[in-house]
Backbone:
């Protein structure tokens, strides 16, 4: 699997950070534009909002739909980090619809799982599950391993809420295994989501139970973790209390 699909090609777009406009070729922009991704929103939300709102305004002024969607996506992240869930939902939904319109599938996958995490935090677990499943399908289609990891995180939280702490620990371990495999660290909003359910998970299990299930998840392939996530028990056999995949879920 490759990590990112290309952004829409055939034109150049312009983005603005700190009052400077410059051309950026969309194929070099995996998910969100490099200039917007570089804004240090983790440490200074106010400054980040100012920069990204300026980028959004200029993108709209020059009818750059991709740039506007990238800015909205980042604003959605900031809003979620600040606990402004309704605002995050609105920004992320608008970014998602624009990426759908542009046919930019990696952006669609990224915003679907971001939307799912926000919906989960707002208590809408059914919508979160459906959007995460659509994200999974899109990730498989375009080869996006980053957002498959985030789908595992979302389903780990759902498993915990459904009274399945061992499977939650396995999926959490699978997400961590993907981080290591693709050398891609969590962003702030992703870390906070992970910390939220891990805190509850470590209360639900003994230290040994958690460690064993988590390590089992870390060793799972993507296929195994997906099969576990989808609760396709026909694909597993129990070998001494450890789950093993019988056949692959992805060709």
Residues:
């Amino acid at each position: 699997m490759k990590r990112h699909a290309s952004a829409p090609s055939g034109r150049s777009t312009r983005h603005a950070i700190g009052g400077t406009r410059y051309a950026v070729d969309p194929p070099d922009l995996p998910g969100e534009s490099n200039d917007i991704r570089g804004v240090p929103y983790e440490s200074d939300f106010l400054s980040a909002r100012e920069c990204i709102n300026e980028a959004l305004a200029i993108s709209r002024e020059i009818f750059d739909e991709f740039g506007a969607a990238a800015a909205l996506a980042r604003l959605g992240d900031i809003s979620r980090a600040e606990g402004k869930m309704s605002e995050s939902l609105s920004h992320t939904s608008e970014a998602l619809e624009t990426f759908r319109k542009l046919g930019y599938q990696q952006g669609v996958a990224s915003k679907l799982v971001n939307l799912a995490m926000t919906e989960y935090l707002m208590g809408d677990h059914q919508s979160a599950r459906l959007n995460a499943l659509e994200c999974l399908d899109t990730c498989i289609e375009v080869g996006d391993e980053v957002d498959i990891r985030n789908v595992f995180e979302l389903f780990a939280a759902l498993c915990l809420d459904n009274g399945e702490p061992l499977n939650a620990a396995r999926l959490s371990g699978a997400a961590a295994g993907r981080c290591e495999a693709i050398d891609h660290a969590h962003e702030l909003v992703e870390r906070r989501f992970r910390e939220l359910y891990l805190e509850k998970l470590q209360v639900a299990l003994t230290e040994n139970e958690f460690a064993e299930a988590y390590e089992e998840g870390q060793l799972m392939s993507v296929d195994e973790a997906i099969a576990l996530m989808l609760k396709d028990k026909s694909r597993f056999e129990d070998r001494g209390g450890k789950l093993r995949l019988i056949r692959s879920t992805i060709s």
Remarks:
- The two ends are 12 Å apart (CA to CA).
- The beta strands are 13-17, 20-24, 236-239, 242-245.
- Residues 144-251 form one domain.
